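Duplicate of #3305? Posting structure anyway:
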């Protein structure tokens, strides 16, 4: 019945012309939509809308960009706040029905138009946009680099006795260097190289944990590069997933460390040789 009433209402509006000319081309152009921005910022939000609203004005300082916020959909209050705040033509809200990081990052990458994509978390904070300008410059300097981390670099350790893999001692990115793997966030991606050669974030690691390590290993074995620099990020709070899902995080870390070992333990020496050959390219 409600659908029938709505149908009649809309038919009357169409016939009377009351709703005509609410949109036109000039107003669309005035919104300033960018079809091919230099950068896309993709931010995961797990009940952390206030933190996202805190960094949005900072992200907007980089004019040639679009912003995609992934809301996990677990709380309507946070969804409504984000929908109200994301007002620009180049700002989008992706509601994900509690699918966490792996699937939603992959979906958002495919929706983005930026040449370079910054994958971010809901606890990230920073000053200014120098970290963005530096990342763009590094990508332009290294055309084979598909992933650039701004936090920690890691050398993947394969423990044969326990048949598992994990990130070893963290390498800080004070000076740009190539590394085996980087840890989000931020985690930058050259979108063209990603789509041409890597194509996806491995869904076997869903819903989260270690898929960033796997992506980096696969990048090197595909003939691409992974770099590290200092984005000078700081944490606003603990990440949303770690606050409300600490036990699940430990469970996923164990599960996916075994999976990473199964996939790449026998290619550890090959990976090391490839990385060593890139040292002089920095």
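Output from current build:
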């Amino acid at each position: 019945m409600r659908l029938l009433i709505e149908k009649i209402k809309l038919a009357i509006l169409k016939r009377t012309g009351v709703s005509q000319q609410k949109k036109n081309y000039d107003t669309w152009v005035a919104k300033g939509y960018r079809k091919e921005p230099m950068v896309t910022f993709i931010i995961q939000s797990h009940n952390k809308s206030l933190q996202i609203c805190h960094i949005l004005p900072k992200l907007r300082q980089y004019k040639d960009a679009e912003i995609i916020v992934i809301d996990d959909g677990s709380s309507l209050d946070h969804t409504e706040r984000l929908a109200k705040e994301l007002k620009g033509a180049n700002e989008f809200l992706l509601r994900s029905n509690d699918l966490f990081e792996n699937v939603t990052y992959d979906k958002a990458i495919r929706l983005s138009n930026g040449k370079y994509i910054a994958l971010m978390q809901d606890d990230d904070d920073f000053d200014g946009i120098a970290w963005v300008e530096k990342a763009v410059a590094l990508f332009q300097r290294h055309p084979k680099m598909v992933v650039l981390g701004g936090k920690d670099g890691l050398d993947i350790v394969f423990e044969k006795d326990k048949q598992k893999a994990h990130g070893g001692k963290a390498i800080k990115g004070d000076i740009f260097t190539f590394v085996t793997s980087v840890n989000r966030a931020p985690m930058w991606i050259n979108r063209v190289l990603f789509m041409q050669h890597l194509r996806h974030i491995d869904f076997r690691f869903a819903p989260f944990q270690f898929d960033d390590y796997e992506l980096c290993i696969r990048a090197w074995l595909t003939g691409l590069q992974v770099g590290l620099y200092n984005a000078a990020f700081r944490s606003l709070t603990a990440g949303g997933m770690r606050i409300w899902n600490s036990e699940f995080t430990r469970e996923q870390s164990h599960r996916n460390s075994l999976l990473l070992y199964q996939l790449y333990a026998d290619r550890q020496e090959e990976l090391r040789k490839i990385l060593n050959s890139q040292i002089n390219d920095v």
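Confirmed duplicate; merging threads. The chain has a mean pLDDT of 90. Residues 246-264 form the longest helix (19 residues).
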